[in-house]
Amino acid sequence: MPPLLRTKIQIPPIRTQHIYRDRVLQKLNAKNESRLILVSAPAGFGKSSCLIEWAHTLRQRDVAVAWYALDEQDNDPVRFTAYLLKAFSILDIPLPALPDADQQITIQESANYILNSVTEFAKPVVLLLDDYHLITTPQIHDAISRLCEYMPPNMRLALGTRADPPIQLARLRAQGEITEVRMADLRFTTEETKHWLQTTLGWSPSTQVLTQLDGLTEGWAAALALIMMSQSHSDEQALENQLTRYSLSQRHIFDYFAREVFEQQSDNVQHFLLDTCVLNRLYPNLCSTLTDNHSAPLLLNQIATESLFVIPLSVSEPIYRYHHLFEQFLRQYLQMQDAGYFRKQHRLAAQWYAEQDDLVEAVHHALASEDFDFSARLIENYAWETLTARGEIMTIMTWLKSYPVEALERHPRLCLYFSRALYLTGDVDGSQNYLQIGMDALENNPDAIQNRESLQAIAYNYKATLSAYHGDVTTGMYWIKQAKALQQFVDGVDQVRIMNTDAFLYYLIGDVPSARQAYEHALTLANRINHHYLLLDAHYYLAQIDLLAGALQAVHDRCEKVMARYTSKINPLSIIMLPLASVHYQRNHIVEAESILRDAITLARQGNIPDALWFSHVLLADVLLARGETEEAEVCINKAWSIVSRYSSPMMTSFVRAAEARILLASGQIDRATDWANDYQQIEKTDNHQDHENVILAQVFLAQGNTAEALSLLTQLTEEAKRAGRMKYVILGEILRALTYQLSGEHDKALESIDEALTLAQPHNFVRVFLDIGKPIVRLLRSAINHQIKPDYAGYLLELANQSDDFQHPADVLTDREIEVLEHIAGGASNQDIAESLVISLGTVKSHIHHIMNKLDAQNRTEAVSKARSLTILKEDN
Questions:
Q1: Verdict on whether the full-model pTM lies above 0.90
Q2: Where residue 248 falls among pLDDT bands split at 50, 70, 90?
Q3: Cβ contacts of 341 within 8 Å, gap of 6 or more
Q4: Whose CA is closest to 649, among 427, 471, 432?
């Protein structure tokens, strides 16, 4: 991460011409119990000025104020997190030790750090976020919502915005915890306008002038400021003439700027304004570069001292910006006068920022200059590796829309980068589009492309990956063969990615031995280059392969070992948590499975990892269904579907729709499940193995009483799964075959199948594959016990099956007193402290803790608190 701009997190100074407005300040200070102060109004109504004045008055009252001035580039979660933490670190608030630099802090984690630190801070704290309307990223809105929800009593949040933010405003209003300052509050009253003119002009305007001003500006602070920019206010008559002239011509702001502001400046000032208007921030050295004038810093200082349309951004440094409306005028004016010069200035700015290693600003200006070749080289040679290493994929996504096709055709590497960025965020169709442009460019311009073989290998690999997501394994195998033939031309990272894709294709067809061998090779390569994202990917699929093979303990040990390497939960760890949760689910550790999955969902959402997000919701639906919470399970499946639908992947669509059908069966909606079964049988099948779908299809057949179809399907499934090493589905298939034989009256064959299932399942302690069948499993297990087929294991499963109908969520089975004790534990209290606080004996405290541990399936106090928070029994700040 390059050095952060301190001016974004420093409270700007109050301008010399500022008019103090006690009326607005009184409203901001009226309700100390407000969690949120919302200053919301259109552009030019003085929101920033209002917040700056308030921030300074708060500091005078010994309030700790964290300031963060936002811009469009702050939509990247990684960038936002860095600035937010920095805004607090420059205060006296002691933040806890943060993880190492290579372990990125998520937005939610930064919110937790801030909340925990402010809770221990003696002073009141206010966080001010200006220009919040520029934020559009859902993860950032979620983090701000979290801050708002869990703020301690000594903290408040203030937002300056042109539009109401998508956070819990309705609930805050209902609870009386929001103070709102709107356009009507910010409009200048006649008295305030009079006071401003007296201060600015040195003479008191007449009622007629005030009335004329009010009719013209309607209390709009920006319009009043614009009028004061004119140099022709020597007396009231001059001002009145100006207002009349303006009113009789056009009320358009552009005309006013042109006639009454810009044209009133000297030639050298006009040139300076046009030379530098492309800049978002006016640095003296940068202004010198754009004006080709070493005295530009002196002129900048002069303009800032004498003019209202340049705003200081720092108390200690000569850094400024133009008033936003004036900036818009200057840019529009320059583009109309000389569009080529406008682009040239952006190009100069891009070069300057590139030399400062500020790649985000450099690319921004390069794109604005429409020098697409230059901007492409910046991204290809510098920005891509830097930003992807920092996880700033969202920043890259904003750039790809700027490129015309003819520019992309000259830069196949850039096309491949954009293709990967889209793929990582779940837009498979968009990824395919950019990939095809890149491949066409490689094919059509073979002599003009450097490192062509390397780019071809990468392109073929991406082609194989996208084919896999569409379930077209045959085509994927073709393309990965082409990629492997050229892999000597690529570096270590892309060699691992090629091997990962090769392994993934074997995984999709369910060839467990081949997939395991390929992923172990990928893991070796990833270890060699110490690329932890690729390491996590290989570990994840090796764990999933072991799940298919039925080796639950191997999955558990692998995932726990991988997670133990990280001192904090980084976003990519979400994928490792999924097979671990599956193991706990299969062993009927429902509370543990849910806790892990909810953590995984949080991490995947923060890191914008759609692959992990949709699958974690499917797994969570299984957990909720096991508790009998059918409606909540349906909500989870709907969330999974909303993510998967973006991929346009028949394979993923088929998987989620089958999971939905399972819920329909469990809730007795046989007709709707039958509709799914009919649709599933009609659609063209993809190349990947579809054990998951076929198991659910067989269950639909059984629900219809169609035992012949069920038996035929299950026999084929178990035979194919056994040959490929997918023992999990062999176990499940044999259970369902036993049930089918039982329904058909073929009891000997039913016993043979349940014997096979129990024999395969017992060494790995499978539970849910049996319990998920529902009540029919009871009769099968009793038959097994009566015929001495794995009687101990069958008896254990039978006992669990009889208990499953009575399962309750821990929040329901914990008593109020136990939750009180848990809250004290979360606060770090000792057993003696708890006894004294609750006026109970030490023995009673120990008894409560024993019951809590049993009900939460926890081994110690820390684990109990962690699970309780994950299951929302406790809030994070308790």
A1: no
A2: very low
A3: 274, 334
A4: 471
CB 822 within 8 A of CB 816: no
How confident is the prediction for the chain on average, in pLDDT?
85
For the beta carbon of residue 292, count every other beta carbon within 10 angstroms: 9
DSSP state of 14: P
CA–CA separation, 335 vs 315, rounded Å? Answer: 33
> Which two structure tokens, joined as six digits, stand for 513?
């031995």
Distance of CA 423 to the CA centre of its chain: 15
* Positive or negative: CA dihedral 295, 301, 307, 312: positive
Using CB atoms within 10 Å of the CB of residue 77, give its burial: 0 to 12 exposed, 13 to 18 middle, 19+ buried.
buried
Q: Which residues contact 695 (CB under 8 A, 6 or more apart)?
A: 717, 729, 732, 733, 736
Name the DSSP class of 17: T
Instruction: Please name the amino acid found at residue 693.
Output: E
Structure confidence by residue, pLDDT tens digits, 506-557: 999 999 999 999 999 999 988 988 887 889 999 999 999 999 999 999 999 9
Largest pairwise CA distance in the chain = 110
Segment holding 664, helix H or strand E: helix 650-666
CA distance 418 to 415: 5
pLDDT in tens, 835-866: 888 878 787 788 788 778 777 767 778 878 87
SS in 3 state form for 78-123?
HHHHHHHHHHHHCCCCCCCCCCCCCCCCCHHHHHHHHHHHHHCCCC
Take residue 615 and report the two structure tokens written for it: 């699958």
Q: CA 156, CA 168: separation in Å to the nearest integer?
A: 15
b/e map 623-642, b = 16+ CB within 10 Å: bbbbbbebeebbebbebbbe
Q: For residue 97, name the pLDDT band (cuts at 50, 70, 90).
A: low
Contact criterion met (CB below 8 Å) for 394 and 140: no
Q: Which of 802, 801, 781, 803 is nearest to 792 (CA)?
A: 781
Do the strands 178-181 and 155-161 form a parallel or antiparallel pair, or are they unpaired? unpaired
Q: Which two tokens stand for residue 507?
A: 């995984």
Question: Which amino acid does the sequence have at 853?
Answer: M
What CA–CA distance (Å, rounded) separates 435 from 437? 5
Contact 281, 319 (CB under 8 A): yes
DSSP output for 852-868:
HHHHHT-SSHHHHHHHH
Full DSSP string of 270-306: HHHHHHHTT-SSB-HHHHHHHHT-TTHHHHHHHHHHH
Phi, psi angle pair for 38, to nearest 5°: -110, 115
Pairwise CA distance, residues 738 & 745, whole Å:
10
Q: Are 600 and 591 in contact (CB under 8 A)?
A: no
Our measurement of the distance from residue 870's CA atom to the centroid of its chain's CA atoms, rounded to an integer in Å, reads 19
CA 225 to chain centre: 39
Helix (H) or strand (E) holding 830: none
Distance (Å, whole) CA 461 – CA 559 = 27
Torsion of CA 277, 280, 282, 287, to 10 degrees: -50
Q: Distance of CA 313 to CAs 158, 285, 492, Å?
A: 19, 16, 45
Strands 36-40 and 178-181 turn out to be parallel
Structure tokens at 186: 């910010």
832 CB contacts (<8 Å, ≥6 apart)?
842
